[in-house]
Design brief:
Number of domains: 2
Low-confidence stretches: none
Strand content: 15-25%
Mean pLDDT: 90
Largest sheet: 4 strands, antiparallel
Number of helices: 9
Strand order of the largest sheet: 2-1-6-7
Distance between the termini: 43 Å
Order of helices and strands: EEHHHHEEHHEHHEEH
Radius of gyration: 24 Å
Length: about 260
């Protein structure tokens, strides 16, 4: 038995009952918004870790190795996530999957920073974390700038890189600023992410966001508006656990703003 209800301080206030049709429609739109959230979060997680690395280099350098491993793992997970989801959504021989693969190939072929980060994970798996040096300098405004540098000769001596990456490293000076490399590789991921997201119907996502916001009028003060599927026997008795789904109003508003901004 599905009902619309608010929850505040663990107290449930039932507003009204829902037909199966209305309840199922609400669930479909909630799932659509959360599906979009998962897609958007893939890249945001990498951006957040990169920011953590920059803060760590400045304040807590002993944690740098752990965060580098984490961002490399998420880098690969991001690519695997999109390829798996595109294959599931459109099939592995689809134009969308082929276009996605072409996009990743284009970044690998044309952006040194992207292909270096792509291969750095293999280096760490075989050779361990490379030695890095944290340095600081003042910019023209006398702000302290931090650099996380790697020795290219050491990288070349320790590992059998793919020919394209080896040529890159041989042509570099003795040091490589890893923070700069990460920042450029993330721009590559942003381009790949935009291509992948464009395969999904933003109009459909916008429809779900707007549909859910029509229920915001039922929200009272700081309460959470929810769809609750009460077990059989309610209200005389409760036989089993409650199934509760909260309306993601903040997410819906955020995505509406993002979609409107991207379409302008």
């Amino acid at each position: 038995m599905k009902r619309l209800a608010t929850i505040l301080d663990k107290k449930i206030n039932v507003i009204r009952g829902l037909s199966n049709e209305e309840g199922n429609l609400i669930i479909t739109h909630i799932e659509q918004v959360h599906s979009l959230r998962r897609k958007v979060l893939q890249l945001q997680q990498i951006v957040n870790i990169f920011q953590d690395i920059k803060n760590t280099v400045a304040k807590n350098p002993q944690n740098t190795s752990r965060l580098i491993s984490e961002i490399l793992s998420n880098f690969r997970a991001f690519l695997d996530y999109w390829e798996t989801n595109l294959k599931k959504e459109f099939n592995k021989e689809s134009i969308q999957v082929k276009s996605f693969k072409n996009a990743t190939k284009n970044e690998y072929d044309n952006v040194f920073e992207y292909r270096f980060i792509y291969e750095l994970r293999n280096y760490i798996q075989h050779c361990g974390m490379p030695n890095f040096l944290i340095q600081s300098r003042l910019d023209i405004y006398e702000n302290k700038i931090y650099e996380l540098t790697l020795n290219t000769k050491e990288l070349l001596n320790d590992f059998k890189w793919k020919p394209s990456v080896r040529r890159d490293l041989e042509n570099k000076i003795n040091t490589l600023d890893l923070l700069y490399v990460f920042s450029i590789s993330i721009k590559s991921l942003e381009r790949i992410n935009n291509i992948a997201l464009n395969y999904y119907d933003t109009g459909k996502a916008l429809e779900s966001c707007n549909f859910l916001l029509t229920y915001e009028k039922y929200k009272i003060d700081n309460s959470a508006l929810t769809l609750i599927d009460f077990p059989k026997g309610y209200p005389e008795k409760l036989d089993g656990k409650l199934s509760v789904q909260e309306f993601p109003f903040d997410l819906a508003k955020h995505f509406i703003d993002q979609i409107d901004t991207n379409e302008k």
